[in-house]
Amino acid sequence: MPAAYVQYSYLGLFWNAANLLICFVQSMTRGHFTVKCTYFLILTELCCVCFHLSRKPISIVKSELHKNCSHVMEAPSESSSSQQPVLHPELDCSWKPFDRNNYKQLLGAMDYSFLCAYAIGMYLSGIIGERLPIRLYLTVGMLTSGLFTCLFGLGYVYDVHSLGFYIFVQVANGLVQTTGWPSVVTCIGNWFGKGRRGLIMGLWNSHTSVGNILGSLIAGYYVSSNWGLSFIVPGVIIAAMGVICFLFLIEHPNDLKIASAQSSASSNQVVVVKSEAEPSAISFMGALRIPGVVEFSLCLLFAKLVSYTFLFWLPLYITKAAHLDAKKAGDLSTLFDVGGIVGGILAGVLSDKMGKRATTCAVMLLLAAPTLYGFSMMSQFGLGPTIGMLLVCGGLVNGPYALITTAVSADLGTHKSLKGNARALSTVTAIIDGTGSVGAAVGPLLAGLLSAQGWDQVFYMLMTADFLALLVKLHLDNFKGDFLSI
C-alpha cells in the first residue's frame, strides 16, 4: 500500500497532537456510538454557528453606517429656549462613503460582493474539498474568515473610508467562507444514514438561526458605541473555533480507528495512507447528471433569495418601519431566526414521516408567499403583530431552505446511481448551495434597488421568488423516478 511520509516539523507535531486528541475522544466514548454521534453533531453545529455569526454583523451595522444626519441635537445653553438649536454633525452623522443619497445601493453592493463571491467560490470549493483533508480545509477556511471579518471592523479603528476596501474584504470573506458548508455536510453524510436525516439535520441546521441570533446580539451590543467591535469579536470567535475544529473534528467514524493506529507510530513522523481501492472524486458534470440535483438547485436559488434578503435587510426595514434604533431593531430581527429554527425542525420531521422531502418543501413555500404579504401589512399595526408575523415568516421561509441544504443534499450526494461512491457528496452539496447562493446574491441587491421605490416593491419581489420556487417543486412532481421521495 503506497504511503507518503511527512518529515518531523512543527506542523507534523501539531498534526500528531490532534490525532492524539481524537484518540482521547475515542477512549472516552468507547462502545457508545450514540455519544460519538452527539459529540460530532455538537462540534459541527458550533462550526456552522460561527460561520453564520460572522456574516450577520453587516446587517446590524448598516443603520449605523448611514444614520439620519438631519437629526438636530441641541447643545446645552444658558440662553433662552427660543434660541435656534445647534446641529452637531459629529454626534449624529453617517460613515463615509455611506453618507450619500445612494447609500442603499452602496450597502446593497457590499452584500452583492460578498454573496457573488460566495456563489462563484462554492462551485470550486466542493471540487477542491473532495481532494483535500476536510479537517485541514475547514480549519484554513475558518481562520481566514476570522481574519477578513476582523479586517472589516478594523476599518472603523483606523478610520478607513474607502468603498474599495470594504468591497475587497467582503469578496475575500465570501470566497473563504465557501470552505464551510460542503465540508460539514460531507461529514454529516458520512456519519448518518438516510432514514433519519430529516429530523437530525433539521435539529442540526438550527445553527443557521442560532448563528444569526448570536451575531445580531453581539453586533447589536457594540453597534452604537464602536461598530468595529461588531466585526472584530465575531472574527476572533470563528478563528478560535477553527483551531478547535482542527484538534477535535472526526471526519468519518472510520477515522477513529485510523487515528488510533497512527498514534502508535513514531512521534517523529506522520503517516498518510491512501487506499488503492479508494473511489475517485466525481466530476462537476457527473454530479449534475444525478436525478434531482438541477431541480433542487433552482428551487434553492429562489428560496435562498428570500432568506438572505431578510438576513441582510430586515434590521434596516424594522428601523425604518417601526422607527426603532439599531440595537432594538437587531434584537427584534432575531425572532425571524427563532421561527427559522422551529421551521427547519418541523420540515425535517414531516419529510421523514411522509418520505417526501419535495412535497414538504412545496407546502411550506405555498404558505410562505401570502405570509410575506401579511407581514408587510401587519408590521404597520404595532409591535405585537410584527413579532407574531416574524416568527411565522421565519418558519415558512427557512424551513424549505434548511431541508434542501441539508437532508436533500445528503440524499442526492449518496444517490444509488453513484454505486456507493461517497466522494460525490461534497460536489453535490457545493452545486446546490452554490446555485442557491446566486439567489442569495441577487436578492439583497434587488432589495437595495427596489427599496428606493418603497418597501412594498421588495415584498412583491420576495413573494414572486417564493412562487417561482414552488413552480420548480411542481415540475419535480411531473417526473417518475425514485428521487420523488427525496
User: Largest beta sheet: what is the strand line-up?
Assistant: 1-2
Per CATH, the class reads Mainly Alpha
End-to-end C-alpha gap: 39 Å
Extended strand count: 2
Q: Sketch the major β-sheet.
A: 2 strands, antiparallel
- Which architecture name does CATH use? Up-down Bundle
Give the overall average pLDDT: 76
Could you estimate the helical fraction of the residues in percent? Answer: over 70%
The radius of gyration computed from the alpha-carbon positions, rounded to a whole number of angstroms, is 24 Å
- Shape descriptor reads globular
Count of alpha/pi helices: 18
Strand content: under 5%
Class inferred from helices and paired strands: mainly alpha
Reading the helices and strands in chain order gives EHHHHHHHHHHHEHHHHHHH
Low-pLDDT segments, ≥5 res? 1-8, 70-92, 266-277, 480-485
Short description:
Keywords: Membrane, Sugar transport, Transmembrane, Transmembrane helix, Transport. The protein is mainly α.
Question: Which key features would you list for this structure?
Answer:
mainly alpha, two-stranded antiparallel sheet, disordered N terminus
Structure, explained:
The protein has a two-stranded antiparallel ribbon with strand order 1-2. The chain has one domain (3-69, 97-485): MFS general substrate transporter like domains (Growth Hormone, Chain: A), CATH 1.20.1250. With 486 residues, it is mostly helical. Mean pLDDT is 76; it is low at 1-8, 70-92, 266-277 and 480-485. It is built from 18 helices and two strands.
